[in-house]
Each structure stands twice: as C-alpha cells, then as structure tokens.
Amino acid sequence: MNGDAEFQTPSLQAQITCAECEVAKRQSVYPRLIAAGRLGQQKADYEILTMETIVETLRNLEAAPKLWTNKFELKTKKFEDMTEREHIGQ
Questions:
Q1: Which helix H or strand E contains 61, and what residues bound it?
Q2: C-alpha to C-alpha distance for 78 and 72, rounded to whole angstroms
Q3: Could you tell me what percent of the chain has a pLDDT over 90?
Q4: Is 28 exposed, middle or buried (0-12, 13-18, 19+ CB in 10 A)?
Q5: What is the dihedral of CA 19, 22, 23, 26, to 10 degrees?
Q6: Is 89 helix (H, G, I), strand (E, B) or coil?
Q7: Taking the mean position of all CA atoms in its chain, how far away is CA 63?
Q8: DSSP letter string over 2-60?
Q9: Which of 16, 45, 65, 75 is 20–30 Å from 83 (CA)?
Q10: How far apart are the C-alpha atoms of 89 and 81, rounded to whole Å?
C-alpha cells in the first residue's frame, strides 16, 4: 500500500470470496509443492481443511447476521457497562 488509497473493511461477502479463492489456490499449488518435496501431504491437507473451515464459518455467519450482530452488541454493551463502572469507582 502506498498510503494514497483508503480502504474500507472488507464486507463479509468479500471475505468469503477471498477465502474461496485461497482454497482454490491451495488446491492448485499444493500438489506441485508436494511433488517437489517442499510440502508434506498431511500439512497440505490440514492447511486446505483449515481454509475450507474458514469459508464455512464465514458462510454460517452470513446466514445468521442478526444473531451475530445481537451477540456483538451484547458483548459491547457489557464491556461499556463494565468500563463505566470501573471509571466511576476510581
């Protein structure tokens, strides 16, 4: 980044798309790395599974945005309340 462009936090859909692309890249590149002896099969399988799980998690989050928002708001509210009580107590 050269500092000229401003970026917003990527949307959930953009994150899903990026993670899906990463899965495809790993599925394409890892067999060559394994064949060249630069990556073990178990490590490759684990790395792909991990990224596939990230995609699944993001998709589940996308399917239940209200649930996520409510939990986040609740945690934020609890934190704000706790911080306010600590500040008042000082």
A1: helix 41-63
A2: 10
A3: 53
A4: exposed
A5: -160
A6: helix
A7: 15
A8: -SSS--PPPPHHHHHHHHHHHHHHHHHHHHHHHHTTSS-HHHHHHHHHHHHHHHHHHHH
A9: 65
A10: 12
pLDDT at 1 over 60: no
pLDDT above 70 (res 49): yes
CA distance 7 to 89: 39
* Amino acid code (one letter) for 85: R
* Alpha carbons 17 and 14: distance in angstroms, whole number: 5
How many CB atoms lie under 10 A from the CB of residue 51? 19
Confidence band of 62 (pLDDT split at 50, 70, 90): confident
Residues near 42 by beta carbon (within 8 Å), at least 6 away in sequence? none
Compute how many other C-beta atoms are within 10 angstroms of the C-beta atom of residue 54: 17
Q: What is the mean pLDDT of residues 60-85?
A: 66
